[in-house]
Amino acid sequence: MIEQSRLVDALTEKDPNVNQLNVNDKRIFPIVGLGNPGLKYSRHRHNIGFMTLEALADELGATWGPVRHEAITCSVEYSKSKLILVKPQTFMNLSGKAVNRILSNTNIDYGSLIVIHDDLDINLGRVRIKVGGGDGGHKGIRSIADSLRFRDFIRVRLGVGRPPEGVAAETFVLNPFSLAEGPFVKRLIELGIEATKLIVTDGAERARNVINALKDLEMTGSETQ
Q1: How many CA atoms lie within 13 A of 54 on its CB side?
Q2: Annotated catalytic residue, options 46, 69, 117, 138
């Protein structure tokens, strides 16, 4: 176990925009939103993890700091826990590089890591929670698992739907949502935030049961084509 001052320095480099951590009396949840940096990608399906994390930060009144450890981070207290919000700036397929730099020299339990990301296998508007398992072809998830050498972190899977026939998955996720999809995207972000907060307060299993029981607003594959 490393001492508290070293943990604070490793996560924040004494960034004045990030609150100090008290590891003695608060559980710490690193929460990573996946996406690609830059305005070019900001509204793409692949960036729904960024969008949801940014909305969560706004809701909780968190302030983002500058780029450090190849990520933009902020810290905020929520329900007797400390949340470390992380947006990797390495592009999707190297997300693990930034996450590893932030977490590898700390005593944070990797099992408390929550990763919010897009998922092609779930209809647009639906959210599912998963602990561990494979990456489902998602390069950001694969990069984190490989970099940490740990797969049993919590995933908040945000459904962005399947691509229309004849459209490659890589092309589909690197395009913005349509105007008609706007209400579903709004609901998706709201559910992603709710799922994340429930994981922090009630644990992944309870959060999964609650989210699965909701009557999700969803857009089916036929409606997106």
Answers
A1: 14
A2: 46
Residues with Cβ within 8 Å of residue 173, at least 6 apart in sequence = 44, 45, 46, 118, 120, 160
Q: Range of 95's domain?
A: 4-224
What's the pLDDT band for 67 if we cut at 50, 70, 90?
very high
* Domain count of the fold of the chain: 1
Instruction: For residue 67, give the CATH number of its domain.
Output: 3.40.50.1470
- Are 110 and 150 spatial neighbours (Cβ–Cβ below 8 Å)? yes
DSSP character string of 145-158: HHHHT----EEEEE
Which pTM does this prediction carry? 0.85
Task: Look up 46 and say whether it is catalytic.
Answer: yes
C-alpha radius of gyration, the chain, whole number: 17
Q: Give me the residue label for tokens 């559980």.
A: 27
Q: How far apart are CA 153 and CA 115, in angstroms?
A: 8
User: What are 166-194's pLDDT values in tens digits?
Assistant: 999 999 999 999 999 999 999 999 999 99
| CA–CA dist 39, 47 (Å, integer) | 11
Residue with tokens 């693990």: 96
Q: Are strands 27-33 and 81-88 parallel, antiparallel or unpaired?
A: parallel
